[in-house]
């Protein structure tokens, strides 16, 4: 299976109704909503985005972050499409779940990226298979061998619903190892932070998550990262972590993250965010955030991002079909 690129969800919400002439935009406070609990990739992206936009004075209005968990982003997206399709003060940052939730069989969302306006892709991240620092599992193959012997004996967890991003990260290696992905015992939590808490609390043996969510716990010596889903080894704190391919498992998984706006945003408002997000991408402050969070930059403006999402939709549908999870 080829490179799959997956991402996180954040939303910018106005305090009050959308309003004001587009020439005055933005003229009121903006809230960035992460449609998950605290501590995961979406939450970190929302907080980094608002922090840099404010500190670099790229947006003059007040910006705050709000968490709206539920259904791996599906609950928020349904509310957003119904209530905010004309509200340019509410944006969100999303990742592959916006595609996955719309394409999967179980817990399917009727809404996807076509119900929004993709504004820009900002980053890419990678999946990671993570265990506690004192786990009996020293490498990914030990986990795979136990899953193959008896999948009911290994509890795998992630910060998203079955069929969503963390689930795919968790079961993709097993699928490539010859384990029926439907046999893997997967427990879902609402956000990467909650999944790591479950791991540290001995409520899970292994978790699939994004590498940036595991970074601080790895530095603190609380977890061991058995493998990453990148094509090549990462640098810095992850330089000693093998890729799945190095471990003999032919799988890759890239997590993109980007910013989306309402379906009926005006051309002027869209142009404002394209220009502002390009300035964010080019700023030194953002480069420092990328390094601090173990993210890699990958900027695509609106048209390129939309085309990229069309291509990703095909890849994810193929993957879900292979896993028996497509609608």
TrEMBL record:
Domain of life: Bacteria
Family: Belongs to the UPF0065 (bug) family.
Protein's recorded name: Tripartite tricarboxylate transporter substrate binding protein
């Amino acid at each position: 299976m080829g490179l799959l690129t997956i991402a996180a969800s954040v939303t910018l919400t106005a305090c009050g109704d959308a309003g004001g002439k587009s020439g005055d935009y933005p003229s009121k406070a903006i809230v960035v909503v992460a449609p998950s609990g605290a501590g995961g990739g979406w939450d970190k992206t929302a907080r980094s985005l608002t922090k840099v936009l404010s500190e670099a004075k790229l947006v003059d209005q007040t910006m705050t972050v709000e968490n709206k968990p539920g259904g791996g982003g599906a609950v928020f997206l349904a509310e957003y499409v119904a209530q905010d399709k004309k509200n340019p003060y509410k944006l969100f940052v999303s990742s592959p779940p916006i595609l996955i939730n719309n394409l999967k069989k179980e817990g399917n969302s009727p809404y996807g990226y076509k119900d929004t306006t993709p504004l820009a892709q900002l980053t890419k991240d990678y999946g990671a298979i993570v265990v506690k620092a004192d786990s009996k599992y020293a490498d990914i193959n030990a986990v795979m061998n136990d899953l193959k012997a008896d999948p009911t004996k290994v509890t795998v967890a992630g910060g998203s619903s079955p069929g969503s991003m963390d689930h795919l990260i968790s079961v993709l290696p097993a699928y490539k190892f010859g384990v029926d992905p439907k046999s893997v015992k997967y427990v879902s939590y609402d956000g990467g932070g909650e999944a790591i808490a479950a791991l540290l609390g001995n409520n899970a043996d292994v978790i699939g998550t994004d590498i940036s969510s595991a970074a601080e716990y790895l530095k603190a010596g609380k977890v061991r990262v058995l493998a990453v889903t990148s094509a090549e080894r990462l640098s810095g704190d992850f330089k000693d972590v093998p890729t799945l391919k190095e471990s003999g498992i032919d799988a890759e998984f890239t997590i993109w993250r980007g910013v989306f706006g309402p379906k009926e945003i005006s051309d002027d408002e869209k142009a404002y965010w394209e220009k502002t997000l390009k300035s964010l991408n080019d700023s030194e402050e953002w480069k420092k955030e990328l390094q601090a969070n173990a993210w890699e930059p990958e900027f695509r403006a609106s048209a390129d991002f939309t085309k990229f999402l069309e291509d990703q939709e095909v890849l994810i549908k193929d993957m879900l079909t292979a896993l028996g999870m497509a609608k």
